[in-house]
Write a structure and sequence with these properties.
mainly alpha; elongated; Leucine-rich Repeat Variant; 688 residues; 65% helix
Length: 688
């Protein structure tokens, strides 16, 4: 059973906002589903025009054409639009360069890994490297004397810098080769200059710089060392997180957007601080317990800051009321929309996406923290809220209020006096598990419909990422509880376990079991991670979870259908836990019969080694106590005979594990083999 450890994943921070996986491979399917294919040739032609106005028009048109349109994006990619835009980065006209960078940025964030890899392979870093010192110089001039700075300084610092920085952070996740090349550019002082000047710059640009630094400090030793050993940098990051000030005083939607970006900025700086820990003296950050006093107090409110159902309704309303965009053929060079032109509905959708991405980011950081749970010092309440409490008042009152407000967490009891005496769940169970469970349940926009794209891919991408990250956090919480404490912490009753198991099960039921179609990768991920959470919960509350016929049948069908070895192991683990409810004799029989069918020689085709070991181990665990009511199944079903017949096949499977390449699995296999032999001898000795 493995944790969802936060390790470098090339798609982790930059998921594809507008996936094209629902389309069959190749350009033919893209051409058939795109309504703008005829507009592509004029764009390619104008990209090479001698008239700079036409070149600028072509660059802007790319951004407008690809917006939420993966078919047209694929067609453009097939016409080498990436290479053409990279060429325009060296254009003699500055406005063309700026617009080309904007289109490349949009291609990066919409298209994800494949397009970023193409950009790197077509040498985009060569022009990008020349922009960094130019932007730095202009930024210094602008901040020192805005009135005397060059005429285009603001656009260069704001828009162009934002585009360049975003491209760099997307590229840094393309491959280790690309990351190493970006490490050589000396980006840290450049990026930190934006964070240091945050009060004088637009929040969108500063947030992009923080996002880039967050990605670059993710398990990247050279950059981590450069940031953590600079006391000025770490003090700046800590000041951002501790500050509640929001930039420019705005009203209405602009204020909402600014607030959302400000929250994202603080969460990113939390992530950077966590990436670079431990921080050495003399930095002020070295004197702070970052997890307890900085990170958790920042992340916990973010988790409860949004209701996904309400956000989905707001997004759907904006989608339904989207203003029409002028057709490309009806636009003149004088009336082309700017690359940053956005309608009211688009701005609303952008604001919602920013809030959703902030929650996703908080969950991503939390997943790493949950791998070390439970730490009572960190998750048990010692925080800045306690430290700041007046004399005679401790922080427990706030924890008590939070527990009272948490839905469905505390045990249900009939008498108030019993409730007062009943042990309360640990603080982290209330402050983390409850909000995480709310975030795993899908909404109407969480996944694209079967066989077609989402009505707004960026919103679906963000929602799906939230559900998956919340499940990963829950997976690590319950795994850590099982491995660190060896069982259930005091204060957690069977009702708590059933509540968590049912909440996750209902979320998976809402996802549905039709998860193998094109474009449904996120649904499959939900199940792959979700069964791991069910296993973790089952391990903590083993014997307390009452299985339903639906749960047993669906898990067996899923286990038989999945080809992923790890997912199969986790599903067997979840079934093992459900089989150990004392009174559920029928469910035990169904599950054990399925597990026995996975053993040699009856398994056809042969069960892969890891699931085979898990099935054998599960049967040993389930029937280790012959006094349990469901042991009648073992005796009446003559399970002992089946286990005896499986021994030779199991031994053969263990011998087939390469001791050098898969040492841990070989050790595990030998342990299961020996335990099975000992178990058979024990049951024979009972004479039952």
């Amino acid at each position: 059973m493995g944790k969802s450890q936060k390790k470098r994943s090339m798609r982790r921070h930059n998921p594809m906002r507008v996936p094209d996986s629902h389309l069959p491979k190749g350009l033919a399917s893209a051409s058939a589903s795109s309504s703008k294919s005829e507009a592509i040739l004029p764009i390619i032609q104008k990209m090479e025009s001698v008239d700079p106005a036409e070149r600028k028009w072509a660059c802007v048109a790319v951004s407008n054409l690809i917006q939420n349109d993966p078919s047209t994006r694929r067609l453009l990619q097939g016409k080498n639009i990436v290479g053409a835009l990279i060429t325009r980065l060296s254009d003699s006209e500055e406005e063309v360069v700026v617009e080309a960078a904007g289109s490349l940025r949009n291609l990066c964030i919409d298209g994800g890994y494949d397009i970023c890899a193409e950009m790197y392979n077509k040498n985009i870093l060569t022009p990008l490297k020349t922009f960094v010192p130019k932007i730095s110089s202009t930024l210094s001039q602008y901040l020192a004397s805005p009135k005397t700075a060059p005429e285009n300084a603001q656009k260069l610092v704001y828009e162009f810098a934002d585009n360049v920085i975003t491209i760099l952070w997307c590229l840094s996740e393309t491959s280790n080769k690309a990351l190493n090349a970006i490490n050589q550019i000396s980006l840290v002082p450049f990026l930190m200059s934006f964070l240091a000047s945050r009060d004088s710059l637009p929040m969108s640009t500063v947030t992009s710089a923080a996002q880039c630094l967050y990605v670059l400090t993710d398990e990247n030793p050279p950059i981590i060392e450069e940031v953590r050993t600079n006391a000025e940098y770490t003090a700046c990051l800590l000041a951002v997180v501790r500050s509640t000030d929001m930039p420019p005083k705005l009203n209405g939607k602009d204020k909402d957007t600014s607030d959302a970006r400000g929250s994202a900025f603080r969460v990113l700086c939390c992530g950077i601080l966590r990436n670079i820990t431990p921080i050495p003296p003399p930095s002020i950050a070295a004197t702070v317990d970052l997890d307890r006093d900085v990170v958790l107090p920042t992340l916990e409110p973010v988790l409860t800051s949004i209701d996904l159902a309400e956000a989905t309704q707001a997004a759907q309303h904006a989608i339904d009321n989207q203003e029409s965009i002028p057709q490309l053929e009806n636009l003149s060079l004088k009336h082309t929309p700017k690359s940053d032109h956005k309608t009211a509905s688009e701005l609303e959708l952008e604001r919602i996406e920013t809030r959703l991405r902030t929650v996703q980011l908080a969950l991503e950081i939390l997943t790493g923290m949950c791998a070390t749970l439970p730490d009572p010092e960190v998750f048990g309440g010692g925080s800045e809220a306690d430290a700041d409490a007046p004399d005679g008042v401790d922080g427990e009152n706030e924890d008590d209020e939070a527990m009272d407000d948490a839905e469905d967490i505390n045990m249900t009891v009939d008498e108030a006096s019993q409730a007062a005496q009943a042990p309360q769940p640990p603080a982290f169970f209330t402050s983390l598990v409850a909000p995480l469970l709310k975030l795993v349940h899908p909404t109407a926009l969480s996944f694209p419909p079967l066989g077609s794209p989402s009505s707004h891919p960026p919103t679906s991408s963000a929602l799906g990422a939230i559900h998956i990250s919340a499940l990963e956090s829950l997976n690590n919480i319950f795994l850590s509880m099982a491995t660190s404490l060896g069982g259930r912490p005091s204060g957690l009753a069977p009702e708590n376990g059933r509540m968590v198991f049912d909440a996750v099960w209902h979320a998976l039921a809402a996802v549905g079991t039709d998860i193998s179609g094109a474009g449904q990768e996120r649904r499959k991920q939900m199940w792959d991670i979700g069964v791991g959470v069910l296993w973790g919960v089952g391990n903590i509350w083993k014997g307390a979870l009452v299985p339903t016929d639906e749960q047993v049948q669906v898990l067996i069908q899923f286990c038989s259908a999945t080809t992923d070895i790890s997912t199969k192991v986790k599903t067997i683990g979840a079934l093992e836990c459900l089989a150990q409810h004392r009174e559920s004799v029928d469910a035990n029989r169904t599950i054990s019969s399925y597990l026995l069918s996975l053993l040699p020689p009856s398994a056809t085709p042969p069960t892969p080694t890891e699931p085979l070991l898990q099935a054998a181990s599960a049967l040993i665990d389930i029937y280790s106590d012959e006094t349990l009511p469901y042991d009648v199944n073992f005796r009446q079903g003559r399970y002992l005979d089946t286990l005896v017949r499986s021994v030779e096949g199991l031994r053969k499977a263990v011998r087939g594990i390469d001791r050098k390449k898969e040492r841990e699995l070989r050790i595990r296999g030998e342990e299961v083999r020996d335990n099975l032999v000992a178990f058979i001898q024990y049951r024979r000795g009972l004479g039952l």
